Amino acid sequence: MPSSLKLIWQNVIEILFQIFPQRITKDWLSSIKPLNVEGSTIFLQAPNEYFVEWIEEHYGEHLRKALKKFNIESINWVFDEKKPTLFKKPVEISTLIRSYTFENFIIGKENEILYNIAISISKNFSKTYNPFYVYGKSGLGKTHIINAIGNKAIELNSKIKIRYITAESFFNELIESIKNQTTNAFRNKYRELDMLILDNFDFIEDKPSLQEEILNMIDYLLSRNKHIILAGIKHIKNLKVREEIKNRIVKGIVIEIQPPSMETRYQILKLKAKEENLNVEDELLWEVAKSNILSVRELEGVIARISAYYNFSENELNYKVFKQIISDLVSNKKNYDISKIIEVVCNKLSVDENELKSRIKVKKLLYARYVVIYISRNYFKIPYTTIAKALNKDHSTIINGYNRARKLIIKDKEFQKMVEKVEKSL
Fold first, then answer.
1. What's the structural domain count of the chain?
2. Residue 289 has pLDDT above 60, yes or no
3. Distance CA 256, CA 136 (A)
């Protein structure tokens, strides 16, 4: 092999290693031998036609993209007649999202149990947590945690077979297999798995044929001690699916993913900013963390906006500009009755409403007032005059109280917990 060709091929391999797991990539790359480069065409030797068809179907696009970096536009496959005509099919590449790991999943106390169960499954394939069903609102990290389970499991045991797929894609594959009369091949592909990870499980509602297929798949895999990981928005009991499916799933574990707390939101923002190599002041990150943004996806969107600002503007990112960048994200809550906020604060923080509105200045009551002011202003943009009237205070006292609360939310753990307690109830 000419030295220049050898160098090109080594670089192509390195590029592909960044996309696919090395253990699998090595398997099929070791059976390909680069022979020559003529103009913009590379000549690659492969065992047989079947091997080339399979490689083209699964990895052809990425292989060609890598070769284009070296001005190679086309591949000319040459078959090695000396090798047997029947080539063993390479192991199917993992469909997991590799960037979703436990290492970059920020753990807050609100999801500590969920995280520990997920870790346990990835390490032990515990029968106690099988099936594992995580549910909750969109954008909280369900897809992240279920992919992290698969990625850690493969890291610990490279021989296991895992497939991540959405329920919709699974359904499309089923329909395609029926059209092509290849349903047996479709079923066998999933029955060979050690772990099936099925996302967006709500999609199976009101689809009897899909539910039948999934029920049979669940029964088959569970009977052979294989693991099933599921994620959806609704609790399994609230899904319009067959009772048999509900019964199978509740025998494992069903757990809700909780919205990130204020502290967790701050840690998520800090990590995402670091990943993007952004130097953002803590005060600005806290400004977002203490807002009404509860979705991890929206928090990532904030960092994306900041990144875009740095890339396309030569101006400094000051507080005023920052507020403009995120204004539409943090002011989308509906109006809220302040009397309801006061009621919840009194209930959750165990204070008397009359005392809350009095002139008594003990710490507990002061902090409770700050919580009312902070939540009223920061989450619901209730006017200072309205808050002042509700708390029997003058306008300037409420303004000073809000400024004090903004400092406490960053530095005072006790105050943070009080706000989070009320926040969850509201």
1. 4
2. yes
3. 6
pLDDT band at 215 (very low <50, low <70, confident <90, very high): very high
**Nearest one of 154, 138, 145 to 112, comparing CA atoms:** 145
Give the pLDDT of residue 93: 45
Q: Is residue 146 within 8 Å of residue 164, measured between CB atoms?
A: yes
Domain boundary among 227, 256, 285: 256
Determine the 3-state secondary structure of 198 from DSSP. Answer: strand
Task: Confirm whether 137 is domain-assigned.
Answer: yes
Residue 285 shares a structural domain with residue 347: no
Residue 102 lies in a domain: no
Which pLDDT belongs to residue 59?
A: 75
Q: Which residues contact 242 (CB under 8 A, 6 or more apart)?
A: 211, 212, 215
**Segments forming the whole domain that contains residue 42:** 3-79
Token representation of residue 354 = 């009359």
Let me know: does 163 contact 190? Beta carbons within 8 Å: yes
Cis peptide, bond prior to residue 131, ω within 30 of zero = yes
Domain with 233 in it: what CATH number?
3.40.50.300
311 belongs to a structural domain: yes
In the sheet that 195-199 helps form, which strands lie side by side, from edge to edge? Answer: 162-166, 195-199, 227-232, 132-135, 253-256
141: left (phi over 0), alpha (psi -120 to 50) or beta: left
Pairwise CA distance, residues 35 & 77, whole Å: 10
CA 271 from chain centre, in angstroms, equals 14
Q: Is residue 418 part of a domain?
A: yes
pTM for this entry: 0.59
One domain for residues 355 and 417 = yes
Are the beta carbons of 410 and 265 closer than 8 angstroms? no
Are residue 144 and residue 183 in the same domain, yes or no?
yes
CATH number, residue 363: 1.10.1750.10
pLDDT above 70 for 412: yes
Task: Dump the DSSP string for 283-346.
Answer: HHHHHHHTSS---HHHHHHHHHHHHHHHHH--S---HHHHHHHHHHHHS-PPP--HHHHHHHHH
Distance CA 196, CA 162 (A): 6
